[in-house]
Amino acid sequence: MRAEVLMRVLETPVWTDTIRLKLIGFRDYAHNIWIEVLLNGLGFVSGVLLARWLGPTGRGQLAAAMLWPAVIGMLISLGLHHAFVYAVGVGWATPERLQRLAFRFTLFVAVPAMFIYWVVSPWILRDQFPNQRWVRVICALYIPLTIYAGFLFPIYQGSGDFTRWNMARVFRSGAWTLAVIGLAVSASLTVLSLMVVQIAILIILGAYLYSKLGRLERRNKGEGTAPLKLIIKYGFATYLSGLAFTVNQQLDQLLLSLWLLPSDLGQYVAAVTLSGILLVIPVAVGSIGFSKISRASNDPAEQRRHVRFAFAWSTLLLLPAGLSITIVAPWLTTILYGPEYVQTAQLLRILAPAAVFLGIGMMLADILRGMGKPMYATYGAIAGAAITIVGLGLTLQRFGAWGAAWVSFTAYTTMMLIQCYFLWRCMGHSRRSSPVVLAD
Fold first, then answer.
1. Does a structural domain hold residue 43?
2. Residues 212 and 241 placed together within one structural domain of the fold
3. In the prediction, which pLDDT does 347 show?
4. Using CA atoms, how far apart are residues 85 and 232, in angstroms rounded to an integer?
């Protein structure tokens, strides 16, 4: 009898059309949140182990070896990672077509960048690796491999295949952490061996993601024949946003390193690190929301449902988390860093709320990109970057870390409010079809 009643409930429209869809949607977000926590945990463990086993000099060499290829890869990618997610989500291009574009981009852009870096690397890394030619060669190989594998990841994300997407991400971080432990145990932990491991991981990832592309065909939408210039234009719009976000998040520390004592800079960086924990939430929710919103482009009602869901959950998680960190700041900094980090606890009471607004802004940016309005996300980020540049110029020398903290708070709040306005505009017009805003 109870089984029959339960079956009747499960067959009602309220369950099949509303509750079941919400539970499925929540499952995807919840799954990705714990994946992000796992990835951050693996990164933290490997970072601590490398710092202990390599020592300051070795850790600095590894950072230099990996930083330059990573920055070059980011600069030459032109925002195509976001463009690939959106293109496959709305049906602009099939996964196989995007794979061919990724291969051609790697061949004609990343490979020349690799040779250019290989030529100039003796000058760039002359202090870190004066007599280690092979390290520079391995570092150069990192550029095309990370570009190609990095372009395959968003194809799976945009197709909604979050299982393989997350499997590949966990493999990359988990294999790296296990390799660090294995090399240390075998007394083979060197910068060269670590870079070889990175290259091997990228090769395996690229081969795996390429081999599974055929599984995505049934997820295709549309004909996938949109002009490539449309995809590139979308990518460039998000590329500008990425540069502005970089200014918002890193310019303060760069300038503080020029004007503050190392001890004061350490206090500020510790506060930024702790407040940055909050950003796990928008990164986890935003990546799923971006894909789901773009895939619902032909159904305005379904798209609005995903927008409300992503925005509500990210906000409901960020607000109490930020409030908790603000309240427990004195105890948290003492436990993690020690009693000498008094100023860190005080700065955290500004930077934690600032990180909440930054997190909401990041979530809104992913929503706007998913709705086909990447330039709307860029406008807010550019406004925040302008406030950051002007504000730091006016306050840093006089107020130091406190000035930087309040400038960050103001910039992140402004960025969030501007993106809220554009989201309101989009939601008001989403009942009727509207053109993609790549530049306006």
1. yes
2. no
3. 86
4. 12
* Cβ atoms 395, 380 nearer than 8 A: no
pLDDT for residue 277? 81
Residue 293: name the closest of 426, 165, 153 by CA: 426
User: In this structure, what are the phi and psi dihedrals at residue 436, rounded to the nearest 5 degrees?
Assistant: -65, 130
Domain count within the chain: 2
Tell me 328's DSSP state. S
Two tokens, residue 275: 């407040």
Dist CA 37 CA 42 (whole Å): 9
Contact indicator for 294, 373 with CB cutoff of 8 Å: no
Cα–Cα distance measured from residue 50 to residue 136, given in angstroms and rounded to the nearest whole number: 20
The backbone region for 227, taken as left when phi is positive above 0, alpha when psi lies in -120 to 50, beta otherwise, is: beta
Structure tokens at 248: 């918002």
Are 192 and 254 in a shared domain?
A: no
Dmax (CA) of the chain: 80
Measured in Å, how far apart are the chain's first and last C-alpha atoms? 61
146-181 per-residue burial string, b: 16 or more CB within 10 A, e: under 16: bbbbbbbbbbbbbbbbbebbbbbbeebbebbbebbe
CA distance 315 to 312: 5
Q: Is residue 430 part of a domain?
A: yes
| Dihedral over alpha carbons 414, 284, 164, 150 (to 10 degrees) | 40
Q: Are residues 206 and 296 in the same domain?
A: no
Q: Do 267 and 191 have their domain in common?
A: no
| Radius of gyration over every alpha carbon of the chain, rounded to an integer in angstroms | 23
Q: Which helix or strand (DSSP H or E) is residue 374 part of? A: helix 374-429
**Do 192 and 248 belong together in one domain?**
no
2 inside domain: no
Q: What are the beta bridge partners of residue 225?
A: 93
How does DSSP assign 66-117, residue by residue?
HHHHHHHHHHHSTTHHHHHHHHHHHTSB-HHHHHHHHHHHIIIIIHHHHHHH
Read off the pTM: 0.72
pLDDT, averaged per 10 consecutive residues of the chain (440 residues), comes to 48 48 60 76 72 65 73 84 87 88 94 89 69 72 91 88 87 89 82 86 93 76 76 84 71 64 69 81 83 82 86 89 86 74 83 92 89 85 87 82 88 92 80 48
In angstroms, the CA 141 to CA 125 distance is 15
Domain that holds residue 356: 227-440
